Structures are given as structure tokens and as C-alpha cells.
Amino acid sequence: MSKLLELDHVTKLYPVGGLFSRQSIKAVNDVSFSLDADKPEIFAIVGESGSGKSTMAKMMLGNEVPNSGRLVFDGTDISTIRNRSQREAFMARVQPVFQNPFEAFNPLTRVDAYLFGTAHRFAGANNQAEKERVCDEALQRVGLSMAEIKGRFSHELSGGQLQRVAVARALIPSPKLIVADEPVSMVDASLRMSIVNLFRSLRDELKVSIIYITHDLATAYYISDRVIIMQKGVVIESGDARAVLDNPTHPYSIALKNAVLPPDPRAASAAIRLRSAAAAG
Ligand SMILES: Nc1ncnc2c1ncn2[C@@H]1O[C@H](COP(=O)(O)OP(=O)(O)OP(=O)(O)O)[C@@H](O)[C@H]1O
Ligand SMILES: [Mg+2]
What we know:
This protein has 12 helices and 10 strands. It is an alpha/beta fold. The protein has one domain: 3-Layer(aba) Sandwich (Rossmann fold), CATH 3.40.50. The strands form 2 sheets. The chain has a 6-stranded mixed β-sheet with strand order 6-7-8-3-9-10, with helices on both faces. Strands 2-1-4-5 form a 4-stranded antiparallel β-sheet, covered by helices on one side. Helix 4 packs across helix 5 and helix 5 crosses helix 7. The longest helix has 18 residues. Magnesium ion (MG) binds next to helix 1.
């Protein structure tokens, strides 16, 4: 089976302690896993702050290079992507969604301008009618429409709406992989599940694989097919999401789970509701 993405003993060091220091920390330490090309899935990377999640995302997006090991996307070592055309081709197939949609969109630029730019650059839309058609199709996928967005600025939309626009924009190039780094942590709790469910529908209907980075075990449990749990750059647990999150074996994962799912039955009831919803859906 061919691989969509393969991480092979990936390590990323960052220098610490100033300019002349030779010390470094292993932000990501010897991580290996792969996603199959013909089996779209939601792959969660879970861990507390500083565990290396965003560093992983940056390497998968080609924005950081590993000190050792390789990241191979669809047969190409990401670190060998050099010229502009290779970079554009890569970006069309691997798209990011970031944590804070209000940072991703300049407040002085109309939101639709971003979508039109992406439609022009990655979907070959050359005239206004074509741009609007391409963007409307992507917006419909995320439960919005061109009519709702046209001419609006980011501050005129809610965080949840704006994050949907960010997902729509990511969909315009028809990517094979979306790397979403904490995509719901800035979104109101009441809207989180709708974004998370959106990822599911993208997997099922568009066959897009999704790297879902989060420190939130509940949503990871709810949507992921597989999960890795990271601590200080190291993968300490991995496998089928339900199996790992139901029965964590590493003390760190047990602690992480207990921190999220307290033994208090009232507090746990929300988590149990999530679980039964997951089991039913
Ligand atoms: N550009 C950088 N220079 C130096 N150190 C860095 C850099 N980026 C990250 N680090 C360090 O690498 C480690 C991993 O950081 P990373 O941002 O990947 O963690 P994270 O899991 O995404 O955390 P969070 O949940 O807070 O977003 C941390 O110790 C961080 O301080
Ligand atoms: Mg991060």
C-alpha cells in the first residue's frame, strides 16, 4: 500500500541558552509513523504544551526541516522541495488550518479576497465568476456560502464562522492532507463539535486525511481514527484512538486522561455523552 505521508525517525532540535550556547532541546525526538494513501483518516497528535506538536506540524508543512530523519509526502522527501513550482505543487496537496483564525486573516483585508486569491492561485480560476463559483463550492462544504461571506471583514464573523472560512480556503486546492494545529481551541465550546464533525465529513466525503493536533482528549477521542500521545518530543503511546484513549498504559497518558476526565461523575457525564455519541455515530 502506498503512503500519503511517512515520518521516518524524525528529530528536530532547537538551540537553547543564547547565541553562543551549544545546548539544544529535542522538540521532536525520533518520531515515526505513516498514513496510507488510499485510506483517509483523522490522525490525532495529542500532548500537553511544549510536547512538540506544532514542531511536527511545521515539519509536515515544510516550514521546518528535521535535524535527522525524513518526512516523505507522496513519495517526495519534503526537505528536497526547493523551487517555487515544487513548493506550489506541494502546498496544493498539503494545507494548513491554524489555531487562531483572527490571526490567519488580516483585519483590513476582506475575507473573500483570501478565498479569491487561493482560487486563482491553486484552482486556476481566472475571472470573477469562476472565482466565486470555486469559493462558493468550498464554502458550501463547510456549511457557509459566498453570499454570507462576500465583502465581509474578519471581525464581522464569529470565531467559529471564520474557522470554517479557513477550512474552506484550505479545501480550494483539493488537498490530500490537512494539517490542523489546535483548530478548535479558540472556538467557542458550543461550536467546537460542529467544526470537529466537519473534519469527519471531509474525511468521509472528500477523502482528505487530517492531522488533528490538540491537547483536548475528548475531541481526539470523538473524531480520531488513530492517535499518538507525545511527551517532551517523544511518542509515548500510539495506536487505534479508542483503544489508546480507553486504556492508556503510560503513566503520562493516564495522568493526561485523568486530568481531562475527572472521576467526579457529574464532571465525567459530558465525557460519557461524548463517548456514547461517538459509539452511535
Ligand atoms: N523556534 C523555536 N526556537 C526554540 N525553541 C522552540 C522553537 N519552537 C519550539 N521550541 C521549543 O520546542 C518545544 C516544543 O514546542 P512546540 O511548539 O512544538 O510544542 P507544542 O506541543 O505545540 O506546545 P503548545 O501546546 O503550547 O502549542 C518547546 O520546548 C518549545 O519551547
Ligand atoms: Mg503548538
